[in-house]
Amino acid sequence: MSDAAIARAAALPCFTNPTEIEPLGGGITNVNLVVRDGDRRYVVRLGDDIPEHGVLRWNELALSRAAHAAGIAPEVVHHEPGVLVLAYLEARTFAEEDVRAPQNLPRIVELVARAHRTLGAHLSGPVLAFWPFQVNQIYATRLKAQGSPHAGRLPALMQAQDALIAATGPVELVIGHNDLLAANILEDGARLWLIDWEYGGFNTPLFDLAGLAGNNGLDEGQERAMLEQYFEAPVEPRWRAYQAMKCASLMRETLWSMVSELHSELDFDYGAYTEENMARLTGSLADFRNV
Questions:
Q1: In sequence order, what DSSP letters do the residues of 75-114 get, joined into one string?
Q2: Which position among 91, 137, 189, 209 has the lowest Cβ density within 10 Å, counted as fewest Cβ atoms?
Q3: Any idea where the Aminoglycoside phosphotransferase domain is (predicted)?
């Protein structure tokens, strides 16, 4: 954590007497700090627009406010260019095994469904769309142009994507979170919260469900139960499209990490993260081809 980050957080006009400025672990896109001001604590997210990832902070702000109004995310206390200040939640961050736990997964699915079905009513302006196939194509184009060491993998990935697009077919649009890593789910002892809306926007609900499964290692039985709960309908009519979107989600996470290897200055092992996600993607593509 740099002195500049501490100084910037301490100087924010929303604080009266900021003390105990500490790093908040887990972020792989922004610098996150916890600041105590009087008897309250706040999360300060420091991060400018990230064009290579399609992250625009006005969009994150709009969705963070809507998610709070819907009772899903913490309050936005202050914002200015490059800064978002949120109320601190006395809550624990989930790990992948927490997502998979049978007592938690149905609650998470209910939270995601509530987000999809309620956030739109709390928006007061436009927000972005997040179409994973377009995102993946843009990433691949950028990686090739910038001489990524992974460039040799791209033709096969884009060929696989053509099959995924065909299998997905027409989609319903909802306001999606689009980054359902375990670290973005919090539990305060009574309820769950969904944080970090920087990739949020219009998408098919299958993308969030597939991301939840692919990022957290759900088995097929859990996936089928998740889909049945969310849609309140038999799984089979959606199963192949869901498998395609699961591959698209893992491809996006893999390509995201490849791009971050080239651009990010954060202290994180993006190379290892790329290989972890590539292994998951390879397995999911094999499953998709066998559906």
A1: PEEEEETTEEEEEPP--EEP-HHHHHSTTTHHHHHHHHHH
A2: 189
A3: 20-241
Nearest Cα neighbor of 230 from 114, 67, 102 is 114
Class of 92-289 per CATH?
alpha beta
223-239 residue pLDDT tens: 999 999 999 999 999 99
Report domain extents, the chain.
Answer: 3-87, 92-289
Q: What is the pLDDT of residues 85-115, one digit of tens each?
A: 999 999 999 999 999 999 999 999 999 999 9
Q: Are β-strands 201-203 and 174-176 bridged in parallel, bridged antiparallel, or unpaired?
A: antiparallel
Q: How high does pLDDT run on average in the chain?
A: 95
Nearest-angstrom CA–CA distance, 101 and 55: 31
